[in-house]
Specification:
Length: about 325
């Protein structure tokens, strides 16, 4: 039996970004970002409009180099838009804040501190008015949450990549940010560890229900975790594509999803969208290119294959 691919439910909000009735937690309005100037200028993001809802899990998917990290850094307040406005609860985002916790692709742990001390450093900074005991219990809770109790005394060089990323995740989660920003947090990991951590992130999110934005280049990962998926079109001047709603029931289990028609149809739709939009960008680039068109010479290829007789003669 062949699987029927149904059209994805593309949210109206994608077409009319301001149609959401509730006040969004974060709003991006006509946001553009470039780096450099003159001939070295790189136009990365163009006219980004997006509303992020309180408590949702949003995934932003895009190809390498499309501007995903720039997108995450704008939300984190680490870079400023050149044009447009980003607000959180109606107030402009003007810099980094513990309200928005960012987990990077490269764990950025302090190498001379243990897992416990790396997490405690952030907790002590954010929760200064808590008692020492409260802070210690809080740190232990998050170490346990990411399954690192047995390795809490180890330093980063004594950890595997997955364990470092767990530490980094626990450190950010322990700061209790209102928004968790995950910038390709699993892309440096092997497939098995990646799958395991995807499920752990999902479990934590289901318990905590904080707003979460995951930036990824993996469509399957996006479908597993997200309520909504928004494609980032290829750059330069990347804009956002239509929003895909993920209606799959939770809790979701990766191994079971693979057999579900809705999962397969959504994966096809998002992948097709991204591949088509990349091809269109390439075609447009080729059409506008100043490079001289390659003209093929008007000749017929000649067969260099020797007649069978000639081969036999040459081998005798
Ligand atoms: N600080 C910077 N200065 C100049 N150019 C930059 C800077 N940061 C990023 N870029 C350029 O902006 C573009 C988008 O980069 P970005 O890292 O946001 O993309 P990405 O989608 O996260 O890529 P990848 O998936 O490969 O990590 C690239 O062309 C990159 O070279």
């Amino acid at each position: 039996m062949t699987a029927t691919i149904t059209e994805p439910r593309v949210a109206e909000a994608a077409v009319q970004p301001s149609s959401s009735p509730a006040e969004p937690l974060i709003a991006m309005r006509a946001v553009s970002k470039s780096y450099g100037s003159g001939v070295t200028r790189t136009d990365v993001l163009h006219d980004i409009d997006l509303e992020i809802r309180e408590g949702e899990f949003l995934a932003v998917v895009g190809f390498s180099g499309s501007g995903k990290t720039t997108f995450a850094q704008l939300l984190a307040g680490l870079v400023e838009p050149d044009r447009g406005l980003i607000t959180m609860r109606g107030k402009p985002i003007s810099g980094p804040s513990p309200d928005r916790g960012l987990v990077f692709q490269n764990y950025s742990l302090l190498p001379w501190l243990t897992v416990r001390a790396n997490i405690a450093l952030s907790v002590n900074r954010v929760f200064r008015n808590w008692s020492r005991g409260e802070r210690r219990d809080h740190v232990e809770r998050f170490i346990e949450m990411v399954g690192l109790s047995h390795a809490a005394h180890r330093r980063p060089h004594e950890l595997s990549g997955g364990m470092r990323q767990r530490t980094s995740l626990a450190r950010t989660l322990a700061m209790k940010p209102d928004v968790l920003l995950l910038d390709e947090p699993l892309s440096a990991l092997d497939a098995l560890t990646r799958g395991q951590l995807q499920e752990e992130i999902l479990k934590i999110w289901e318990e905590e229900r904080q707003t979460c934005v995951m930036i990824t280049n993996d469509v399957d990962e996006a479908i597993l975790v997200a309520d909504r998926i928004v494609p980032l079109n290829p750059g330069p001047n990347a804009s956002l594509g239509p929003i895909f709603d993920v209606g799959l029931p939770r809790p979701r289990v990766r191994t079971e999803l693979n057999h579900q028609e809705e999962f397969k149809s959504l994966r096809n739709a998002v992948t097709k969208y991204l591949v088509d939009v990349r091809q269109a960008a390439r075609d447009k680039q080729a059409a506008g290119s100043d490079a001289p068109a390659i003209r093929l010479p008007d000749i017929r290829p000649q067969s260099l294959k020797l007649p069978r007789k000639a081969i036999m003669n040459s081998t005798i």
